[in-house]
Amino acid sequence: MGRRAARVDEEGSWVFNRLAEDYRARPGYPPGLVDRLAEVSGGRGTVVADLGAGTGLLALPLADRGLRVVAVEPSRAMLAILREEAARRAVEAVQAPAERTGLPRSSAGAAVVADALQWIEPALGGLEVARVVADGGVVAVVAARLCGHGFAAAVSALVAEANPKARPRPAARLGQFFRAAGVARWEEETFRQEEPLSPPRLDAVLRSLSLVGPALGPDRLARLLAEARGLAEVHGGAVWARDLTLSFGRRSGF
After folding, report:
1. Which of 74, 76, 184, 192 has its CA 20 to 30 A from that of 83?
2. How confident is the model at residue 214, as a pLDDT?
3. What is the side-by-side order of every strand in the sheet holding 238-250?
4. 16-44 in b/e burial notation, b at 16+ Cβ within 10 A?
5. DSSP sequence for 3-71
6. Could you give the CA distance from residue 213 to residue 67 in angstroms, rounded to a whole number?
7. Where are the alpha helices (DSSP H) in 108-171?
8. Which fold has domain 3-146+168-194+243-250?
9. How far is CA 150 from the centre of its chain?
10. Average pLDDT, the chain
11. What is the longest distance spanned by two Cα atoms in the chain?
12. Residues in Cβ contact with 217 at an 8 Å cutoff, skipping those fewer than 6 apart
């Protein structure tokens, strides 16, 4: 069943239900990026719709900075972890896909898609953002890319070899999404993140990648994890190095 044909109550249709526990091991977003996103979104009190929120890696730190976050995520298992972590924070969890959030019209001052645009139909998702975010509100996208010349580059090549679909996707999706959302011009800022991972955490992070954990058979997955641990030894440790590009702009009415 294709993603767009799946309903949120069809548990087996959402691969992320099977990845939720491994998502706990993923590195969060660097404070500088979260601070900047909170600033451009409008600061304390702003309602931000986090589309494809996952386990709350961005929703939770945004709430810690005083924003009111509506975390929209189709995976029930992901939302269960988010709700567990969101105790006493201003986070509302909504089980829905980004293209059909069910949120009230013009109910948010900003919307963000963090490391999830590849799973959203850009035109439909953008039109939904145009409906949910008030005119003049901010639309933001965070894109992640493993980088560097050490372990991160080597493990990125390893994953691409194991699954060619893991290669970078065309940037055209970003423009489609923004234009459908009513954003004519946007800015980009890049943040570098480096975080060391223990061997068990490295295994979990790799399994959490939808094009690795669920996509590879058990034997190939086991080989990939062993090869990744070998690369970590060669490079003096598993440092998860990535560039995070924050793209953002303001909506104008149609």
Report:
1. 192
2. 80
3. 91-94, 68-72, 47-51, 108-114, 133-146, 238-250, 187-197
4. bbbbbebbebbbebbeebbebbbebbbee
5. GGG--TT-GGG-GGGTTHHHHTTS----HHHHHHHHHHHTSTT-EEEEET-TTTTTHHHHHHTT-EEEE
6. 33
7. 122-132, 151-162
8. Rossmann fold (3.40.50)
9. 24
10. 89
11. 55
12. none
Tell me the residue ranges of DSSP E strands in the chain.
47-51, 68-72, 91-94, 108-114, 133-146, 187-197, 238-250
Q: How far apart are CA 208 and CA 18, in angstroms?
A: 9
Position of tokens 């998860």? 240
Helix (H, G, I), strand (E, B) or coil at 239: strand
**pLDDT single digits (tens) 44-94:** 999 999 999 999 999 999 999 999 999 999 999 999 999 998 888 889 999
Residue type, 247: S
- What's the rounded Cα separation, in Å, for the pair 99 and 36? 26
Q: Measured between alpha carbons, how far is 78 from 94 in angstroms, rounded to an integer?
A: 11
Helix (H, G, I), strand (E, B) or coil at 244: strand
Q: Which two tokens stand for residue 81?
A: 């972890």
Amino acid, single-letter form, for residue 85: E
Token pair in block for residue 67: 């924003």
Domain boundaries, the chain: 3-146+168-194+243-250
Give me the amino acid identity at 152.
Answer: A
Q: Which of 24, 247, 216 is nearest to 228 (CA)?
A: 216
What pLDDT score was predicted for residue 253? Answer: 60
Q: Which two tokens stand for residue 46?
A: 């702003």
